[in-house]
Amino acid sequence: MVRSKASLVNWRDAGVVSTSGSPYCKLRPVPIRAVQMLPGFWKPRMDANRQQSIPALLQLLEEHGVVDNFRRLSGRKEVERRGPYFTDSDLYKWIEAAAFVLQSEDDPKIARMLDEVIDDVVAAQCEDGYLNTFFTGELADQRFRNLPGEHELYCAGHLFQAAIAHHRATGSRKLLDAATRFADYLTTIFGPGKIETPDGHPEIEMALVELYRTTGTRGYLDLAGFFLSLQKFADKQAMEGHAVRAAYLASGGADYYAESGHRTIIDAVERLWADTAEGKMYITGGLGSRYDREAFGWPYELPNERAYAETCAGIANIFWNWRMLAIEGESRFADVMERTLYNGFLSGVSLDGTHYFYMNPLACFCELRRQPWYDTTCCPPNVERMIASLPGCFYSTSDEGIWAHLYDNSRLNWHLEDGRKVSLEQKTSYPWDGSVEIAVSPEAPTEFALFLRIPGWCENASVSIGGEAQRGVPPGEYLKLERTWKPGDVVHLELPMPVSLQESDPRVRENTASIAIQRGPVIYCVESPDNPGVPIRDVELLIGDEFCAEFKPGLLGGVTVVRAKGLHPAPGQNRGLLYREFGSVKLEMEQTALTAIPYYAWANRGPSEMTVWIPGR
Amino acid sequence: MVRSKASLVNWRDAGVVSTSGSPYCKLRPVPIRAVQMLPGFWKPRMDANRQQSIPALLQLLEEHGVVDNFRRLSGRKEVERRGPYFTDSDLYKWIEAAAFVLQSEDDPKIARMLDEVIDDVVAAQCEDGYLNTFFTGELADQRFRNLPGEHELYCAGHLFQAAIAHHRATGSRKLLDAATRFADYLTTIFGPGKIETPDGHPEIEMALVELYRTTGTRGYLDLAGFFLSLQKFADKQAMEGHAVRAAYLASGGADYYAESGHRTIIDAVERLWADTAEGKMYITGGLGSRYDREAFGWPYELPNERAYAETCAGIANIFWNWRMLAIEGESRFADVMERTLYNGFLSGVSLDGTHYFYMNPLACFCELRRQPWYDTTCCPPNVERMIASLPGCFYSTSDEGIWAHLYDNSRLNWHLEDGRKVSLEQKTSYPWDGSVEIAVSPEAPTEFALFLRIPGWCENASVSIGGEAQRGVPPGEYLKLERTWKPGDVVHLELPMPVSLQESDPRVRENTASIAIQRGPVIYCVESPDNPGVPIRDVELLIGDEFCAEFKPGLLGGVTVVRAKGLHPAPGQNRGLLYREFGSVKLEMEQTALTAIPYYAWANRGPSEMTVWIPGR
Fold first, then answer.
1. By CB atoms within 10 Å of each CB, which of A5, B107, B216, B253 scores lowest?
2. Mean pLDDT, to the nearest integer, of B10-17?
């Protein structure tokens, strides 16, 4: 193994994706532990994640034999292996989630669970470093024989990510050493002239690059590059096939570029990003239009009721854009992250943190309920690791100063790249209100730039520091505030949030003449519990009318609802044939008040009907 | 075996579906051979079917080992079995198609091919009557072990149908005896207390009922009823799952009702028919919205570019409605037949009769081409048997007289139910022109009713006999012309065919604010070869403008085109983001002439773009 000479980041200072030393990144991450979330939008969700979701999921993983599969290999338990070939990855994602929690705060209960699970995992490792509960024992002779179909390296990648997160949480090398032993073994097996088959489910590419960042072992980066070449990544012209796989691979491509600077790689990543943003992403940030192979569709193929938009694909979209943001420092990537976080990602978990959606449709006219467990339970632990790592996505640094990407009540204790200490404290009711007060507290007066993200959705942003005001700040950029900051300085950022009626490119045929309600970063839907007696499927929105927003503290954990006026056919009329002469069926319409709620909060009150896109008139 | 006492229909007089003696049918069929197609719309297609399609497909079946699979069992050829488990059915459907041809006309070449193939099939039958090339030999111990997944009885059903068609073509009992031996064997294996597992792919239900009609063996009807009960057919509330299977099962249900009169069965058939007609059928008559499991979608889930609409499902829709028409004598069933025949069925085969579509999307913005062969080549022989049997769908009889369902140049030589001979000769340019001249020629003046179908799409139909004219005949009914008909009587039927702009129920979200052009029974599309330089995906239709129809004898085998005016965005403009503020993107539109062609004729001129539904303004 060739060890890189670059100095490694101290484990306590590493970010979610630790691009601090990446030569081709413009921004550097801030560790999760440097950002303390305060009561606001995300803190209750992080608490539910820590107190409910993570313990409940470990219990379900135990009940389904996922941990026993490891205990079986070490002889700690005499059981049959249970579950599909990819269950190891579910436990690894759980480990990563728990470890991210411990990067934020002490939690002895989670720490104890984590220690025990990791002990069981490590004890199951083979002599040669190989670790996979499916391809050990009876199926040992199948090792690396079913790479396109059976997620073997995908599981390895999740092990590596879990190990890295655990190391960064605790400083312990226990799981990290198991990971590097496995990775070292892989470098002897895969490569030019050795096994040259890629895994059917990308994931290891991201993980190997991060393991390189963590250990400095150049061979891991090279192996990631080898897998990308096997996947013919640099040739890809469009996002196709399984959405999670495609977006994980693009994330791995971005990671590899960040270290290698290979132009063909970043060109492919950019090409795929444009392909996604221009015609293959839901307004919620969801990816993947098709149930068939859980795949991307053709351009503009974005069905609503039949949307797949797997929760994991939304998470993959966030991963991908977080890496792109680090590389390019452009607001368009943070915009996609935010769009996905508040909408197509957050819809994947119930308000109480214990029930999950695998698919995230944008309309529902049949019964759909979140479930605590899926036979393929990839999404629940993925949601948990995403929420637990979220504080690490609020800020970055660059040579010039500090970059604020997301807004919520929180406190940053970190430093500029030259070591000068700075604290930032945000006070806001975001995403319900666009006023954000940011107290900037350097240890001593010091000059640097504070970059504030002005979301792409925000017209007429303004900012003031003391008496200085700046109005008409353009959307979709980072506003650079460069000055000598003194303790006690406060930035008032105003991001006006009128109700916005969104339309889509007319090539998205299902949304023809239809409207989606957006306010701030939040996409709204009309759901039946708020609109009793209204046939949700038949509703039309009166566009000319006034829309008003009202915060309802007692509703759905506290949400701002949007009130509008709409129409629906008066009951009891003959609705006409499925196909008929244009204009031949005229229905008498009744006016109705409509209440829209944030899309992410739907399906928390039993079976319901729901739609995001509403025909407008 | 209990033999029914009912007298069987002479083999020469049996219809496509021989419901002549069915106690619960209102209409009786007319044999294929009683209707001679004359040069017009269908005759060239039947000729292409006989001269091109049927010989070409047999050659492909030979090349893929489908016939050799039979020769292998009889020891005539030493080869490995080739192809999936259902290939026998492809050959059986080919036999049925060839036999239908011979019911219309002599064709020594086809007769010879048919004799040879049938000889190979019969020689492969097991001692006990069983006949299936997949579950004989090495897999003999798997017989009836994989019914839900491996189409074993589906293949048997196709054998029975082929045998019946061959018997009716030639009077030969060679294949029919093989079929009844197999069916007799099945009655010993399946039934209450015996094997009680249904086949995963319905088909045998229709076949067993028809075999009962052909032989009088009551056990076949009972077995069909048993399979319907295993499928829980009478409980079904909605069309769900695989579209071909669901519609074959519904057809089998209709067949079973026609003989048994079981009220719960016909109630289920009617319920499923309404479910289909009200929200699950394409305007082309196509069925099945989903690639995922080739399945029906939810109500109103009818994507256009992503339509599945398998050719076989369109054929199944015709089968089903043909049976319902016989049972109930209502025009709504003939309307669906006609809608499917001229549109979603006929699109399944190229104009030259040698290339097929498996899926029949209603829009295409990528490359799609018909293929001569599919790995699952169910559709090509199904198309061939449908076209070859079509003359048998033109007329029926009842106690009251003769029913005309379809219009095309043709001559009927048949008789009333009491035996009085009548000829009818149609002269028309249907479907391009709605004038139909019907010469009615009884042997001698005689009183009976002629029922003329007035299509559901036809407002203001009129009819005249000699000087008597009747105007404003209501659409969607059979017009009953009861009189003493004399040799030389001529009925002039006028079915006005203005260009009609169709809309769909607004719950079909992809068609919101969109128009489909229909003229007579023909659904139109806009395809790129007729509209050079026009971006098909971006076209809008100017609704207020005039639409004109023009027959183009040299185009696509002779079609009436529809000319319209439309708009599309002027080139080179910024099209805006995928999602944006409502009304924020205003594109400069260019007016353009549009030429629409019949949907069935698309994709005959190389890769193209195409759309049926066009946003209107």
1. A5
2. 92
- A586 interfaces chain B, CB cutoff of 8 Å: no
Contact list, A515 vs chain B (CB under 8 Å): 582
Buried b (16+ CB within 10 A) or exposed e, B285-303: bbbbbbbeebbbbbbbbbb
Quick check: B239 and B289 in contact, CB under 8 A? no
∠ CA A297-A298-A303, rounded to 5°: 55
Asked if the C-beta of A508 comes within 8 angstroms of chain B's C-beta atoms, the answer is yes
Same domain, residue pair A251 and A306: yes
Q: Average pLDDT for residues B321-349, to the nearest whole number?
A: 98
pLDDT of residue A468: 85
Model confidence at B615, pLDDT cuts 50, 70, 90, reads: very high
pLDDT band, very low/low/confident/very high, at B4 (cuts 50, 70, 90):
very low
Q: Which amino acid is at B500?
A: S
Nearest CA in chain A to B281: A578
For residue range B552-611, what is the model confidence (pLDDT) as tens digits?
999 999 999 999 999 999 999 999 999 999 999 999 999 999 999 999 999 999 999 999
Q: pLDDT at position A3, please? A: 39
Question: Which contiguous run of DSSP H or E holds residue B119?
Answer: helix B108-123
Residue A375, classified by CB atoms within 10 Å of its CB into exposed (0-12), middle (13-18) or buried (19+), is exposed
Same domain, A186 and A255: yes
**Cα dihedral value B276, B279, B280, B283, nearest 10:** 100
Strands A540-541 and A559-569: antiparallel
Say whether both B76 and B214 belong to one domain.
yes
Mark yes or no for CB contact B543/A582 under 8 Å. yes
Same domain, A378 and A254: yes
Residue type, B180: T
- Find, in chain A, the residue whose alpha carbon is nearest to that of B290: A292
| Integer Cα distance of B181 and B163 in angstroms | 12
Residue B200: C-alpha distances to residues A426, B160, B344, B420 (Å) = 61, 18, 25, 46
Reply yes or no on whether the pLDDT at B2 is more than 60.
Answer: no
Report the pLDDT value the prediction gives residue B7, as an integer from 0 to 100: 58
Range of the domain at A113: 11-393
Task: Tell the residue number behind the tokens 């006989």, with chain if given.
Answer: B50
A2 in a structural domain: no
- Note whether B433 and B474 are same-domain residues: yes
Residues 6+ apart with CB under 8 A from A577: B505
ipTM for the predicted complex comes to: 0.96
In DSSP terms, which residues pair with B560 in a beta bridge? B551
Q: Which two tokens stand for residue A335?
A: 């915009």
Last residue in a domain, options A365, A393, A421? A393
A500 touching B, CB under 8 A? Answer: yes
Q: What angle do CA B385, B185, B73 make, to 5 degrees?
A: 70
Phi and psi angles of residue A430, each rounded to the nearest 5 degrees, phi first? -50, 140
Q: Distance (Å, rounded) from C-alpha B85 to C-alpha B90?
A: 11
Same domain, A348 and A272: yes
Q: Which positions in chain A touch B239 (Cβ < 8 Å)? A: none
Distance from CA of A368 to the nearest CA of B (A): 13
Give the span between the Cα atoms of A225 and A205, in whole angstroms.
8
- Confidence check: pLDDT of B3 > 50: no
- Looking at the structure, do residues B476 and B523 belong to the same domain, yes or no? no
- Beta strand residue intervals within A466-505, DSSP E: 468-473, 477-485, 489-494, 499-504
What is the reported pLDDT for A545? 77
Domain count, chain B: 4
| Chain length of chain B | 617
How high is the pLDDT of residue A137? Answer: 87
A293 backbone dihedrals φ, ψ, rounded to 5°: 65, 15
State the Cα–Cα distance between residues A583 and A571, nearest whole angstrom.
19
Rounded to whole angstroms, the Cα distance separating A182 from A152 reads 12
Q: Are residues A384 and A528 in the same domain?
A: no
pLDDT computed for residue B504 by the predictor: 98
